[in-house]
Amino acid sequence: MPALVLIGAQWGDEGKGKATDLLGGAVDYVVRYQGGNNAGHTVVIGAESYALHLIPSGVLRSDCVPVIGNGVVIDPGVLLSEMDGLQARGVDVSRLLISSDAHLIMPHHRALDRV
Most exposed among 7, 8, 30, 106, judged by the fewest C-beta atoms under 10 Å? Predict the structure, then answer.
C-alpha cells in the first residue's frame, strides 16, 4: 500500500503545516508523530482561522482521520481545551485517534521543572 509522508528537515516554521493542509484532502490519515503543544500552526479555511497545537490539521476534514502518534508529548489539559474549542466551533473531534504510547506531561512534571 503506497504512503505519502511529509517530514520536516528542521525545527521551526518551515512550512510543514501548510504543506500538510494542502495534501490533507488526498490522504486518509494525518498523523502527528512528534513534538508537543509548544508547536502548532494556524489553518485558514475561508473566513475561519483555527490555531492547532496538538491535534493534527486532518481534524478539519470530514474524510480524514487525525492521529496523535507515539512521539507526541501530550498535556491532557491542553488537549482537552483544544478539543473543546474545536467542538464549540462545530468541528467533529470524534475521529481523533491517540496512540497509547504517546507521552504525557502531567502537573507534577511541571512542578519538578520549576524546582
Answer: 7
